[in-house]
Task: inverse folding
């Protein structure tokens, strides 16, 4: 089992920045690929970014490419999502997830999920 707890969400103006953190506990964090997903009211959960177990490979949704950066610190059992140039359409609950397999954008491939943290971007 892996437990995931997100933090760092909040209210920010358009153009601003936030840094989300996801702290993991339980089984060996460094063996998991990690992903960030988001869900806005009335919409399906969508992929945001993913990172391989080593941190050497990253993958982004087109909607956030160039604005968001995913990273991880395996010594701290934490994965981060740096979000810059935020837009109102980025407003959503952001969740991190752990995948025992390889890096992927597929929601169903992820085995463990956090509860999420709210990000609200005002115009």
Result:
């Amino acid at each position: 089992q892996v437990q995931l707890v997100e933090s760092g969400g909040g209210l920010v103006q358009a153009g601003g920045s936030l840094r989300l953190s996801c702290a993991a506990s339980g089984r060996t964090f460094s063996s998991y690929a990690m992903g960030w997903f988001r869900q806005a009211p009335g919409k399906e959960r969508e992929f945001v970014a993913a990172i391989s177990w080593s941190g050497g490979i990253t993958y982004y949704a087109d909607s956030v490419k160039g604005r968001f950066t995913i990273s991880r610190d395996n010594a701290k059992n934490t994965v981060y999502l740096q979000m810059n140039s935020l837009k109102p359409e980025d407003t959503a609950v952001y969740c991190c997830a752990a995948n025992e397999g390889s890096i992927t954008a597929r929601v169903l491939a992820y085995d463990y999920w956090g509860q999420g943290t709210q990000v609200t971007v005002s115009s």
About this structure: The chain has a mean pLDDT of 95. DSSP finds no helices and eleven strands in the chain. The longest strand covers residues 18-26.
